[in-house]
């Protein structure tokens, strides 16, 4: 390898670090004591899980308070506070934490969106993740009342100032959790329910590495730095794959390269990747699910199924109007 080539690779690797890590910088929280999470037998009804996990959440808040971690305790109490009671299918207060929360009635919905977050999403930053889920649910309900949103913080998101955010290691671990969760979610949903994956930033790497069955009809990659795959054809899914990026998203400046295990390769917005493109307006990296935005409207239409005939939805490969094929229409 020439000196010039080596220098170029070093420079590009440095650009990845600068583009991905530093805009998201945050200090990792210290360890906080918490109870062991609950385990449930197959078929345990959601309402039973909700009640039991709220109890665990309250216990975790007490333990954090007793340990002098008032900040974490307050955040846990806020998680349990929504009027009508929060609905957690699972909760783990240990370390940076995991939680899977439901908005709406997953048992009666025929449209279910599963949100997968990116880096720096923990119990300490959970409210911003929840805010996006609430905004999506409200937007879906306005057009399609039989809808539900699942906020899936089911993996240890990578540290923002670390090498893990530049590799697929945490994504592979997350995919090993997300795949079984999606299969198990079918226990609670109607057989005709259409499940969509909405994957933000590093979460798009998780989704791209998750093998999904026919229960998942659409996978949406937004604010993605890349997925580690070269094209849609390499993904272990039969779902339609969509990609969108806002005009104000700094992730557009991330170099789409991969050296060994570092970097995520092809840009999902590149026509050669083969995803369906959707309009995301001028969204910044953290703005895609903000109420009133074009990006939120576009993703809601994908979840509902009306994106097939919505203006402005094109195939990234050809730029032509994107209508569903007969096999795709059978998902609706």
Task: Describe the structure concisely.
This protein is an alpha/beta fold and 332 residues long.
Spell out the key features of this protein.
disordered C terminus, 9-stranded mixed sheet, 332 residues, alpha/beta, 8 helices
How do the helices and strands follow one another from N- to C-terminus?
HHHEEEHEHEHEEEEEHEH
Report helical residue fraction. Answer: 25-40%
What value does the average pLDDT take? 86
Kindly, what is the distance between the CA atoms of the first and last residues, rounded to a whole number of angstroms? Answer: 52 Å
Radius of gyration: 20 Å
Describe this structure as you would to a colleague.
The protein is of the alpha/beta class and 332 residues long. The chain is built from eight helices and eleven strands. Strand 3 (111-116), helix 4 and strand 4 (147-153) form a beta-alpha-beta unit. Helix 4 packs across helix 7 (294-304). It is globular and about 55 Å long. The N and C termini lie far apart (52 Å).
């Amino acid at each position: 390898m020439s000196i010039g080539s080596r220098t170029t690779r070093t420079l590009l690797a440095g650009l990845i670090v600068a583009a991905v890590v530093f805009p998201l910088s945050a200090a990792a929280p210290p360890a906080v004591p918490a109870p062991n999470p609950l385990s449930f037998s197959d078929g345990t009804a959601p309402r039973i899980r909700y009640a039991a996990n709220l109890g665990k959440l309250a216990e975790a808040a007490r333990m954090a308070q007793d340990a002098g971690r008032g900040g974490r305790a307050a955040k846990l109490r806020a998680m349990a506070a929504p009027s009508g009671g929060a609905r957690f299918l699972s909760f783990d207060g240990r370390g940076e934490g995991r939680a899977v929360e439901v908005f709406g009635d997953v048992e009666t919905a025929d449209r279910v969106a599963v949100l997968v977050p990116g880096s720096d999403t923990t119990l300490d930053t959970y409210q911003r993740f929840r805010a996006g889920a609430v905004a999506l649910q409200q937007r879906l309900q306005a057009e399609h009342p039989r809808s539900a949103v699942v906020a899936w913080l089911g993996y240890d998101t990578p540290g923002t100032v670390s090498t893990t955010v530049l590799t697929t290691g945490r994504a592979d671990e997350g995919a090993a959790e997300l795949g079984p969760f999606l299969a198990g979610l079918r226990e609670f949903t109607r057989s005709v329910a259409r499940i969509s994956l909405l994957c933000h930033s590093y979460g798009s790497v998780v989704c791209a590495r998750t093998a999904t069955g026919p229960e998942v009809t659409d996978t949406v990659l937004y604010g993605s730095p890349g997925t580690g795959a070269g094209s849609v054809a390499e993904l272990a899914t039969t779902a339609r794959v969509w990609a969108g990026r806002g005009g104000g998203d700094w992730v557009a400046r991330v170099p789409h390269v991969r050296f060994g295990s570092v970097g995520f390769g092809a840009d999902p917005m590149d026509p050669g990747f083969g995803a369906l493109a959707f309009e995301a307006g001028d969204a910044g990296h953290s703005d895609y699910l903000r109420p009133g935005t074009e990006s939120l409207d576009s993703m809601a239409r994908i979840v509902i199924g009306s994106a097939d005939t919505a203006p402005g939805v094109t195939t990234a490969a050809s730029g032509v109007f994107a209508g569903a094929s007969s096999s795709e229409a059978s998902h609706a």
